[in-house]
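Exercise 3.2. Students should predict the tertiary structure of the chain below and write it as structure tokens, then compare their answer with the key that follows.

Predict this chain's 3D structure.
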Amino acid sequence: MGLDFLSALGDRIQLVDTVSSWQEAVKMGGQMLVEHGIANPEYADKMIAVCQELGPYIAIAPGIAIPHARPEDGAKSFGLSLLVVKQGVEFGSHNDPVYLVLSFATPDKESHLEFLRQLATLLQNVEDVARVIVDKQTPEQVRSYLQQVITSQSNERR
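Answer key:
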């Protein structure tokens, strides 16, 4: 299947009630990538700069944003982090408020495109994924729910 979503996520799941801004949310997601050696320290700043430059296109679906920067902006390997903002945060998008901030880094364009393809597949049949995840109380509950969604979808494709 190529990239493994849950392996790429690892234990980088954080739940918070609120953040002061979308920039803080992106910075927190980026910091998880930096702490695990997936990206250089400047990568989170690049993610914020890309959103400021190109607008809130990263809010890809109701309640979900996918901050990222280019591979050459400091990505060292492929990886994800998930910040769950229970009260939501405004990105200035028609998909606001955002509850799931799924930050990612990819070391090359091929893995970048492959990840986006897999993410689209993951989200296409899942109604209200953000609402369900916001109700979870621990990172383990979030990971377990994502595992159920992925398993269910792979069974449907057989």
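Discussion points: The first helix runs from residue 5 to 9. The first strand starts at residue 13 and ends at 16.
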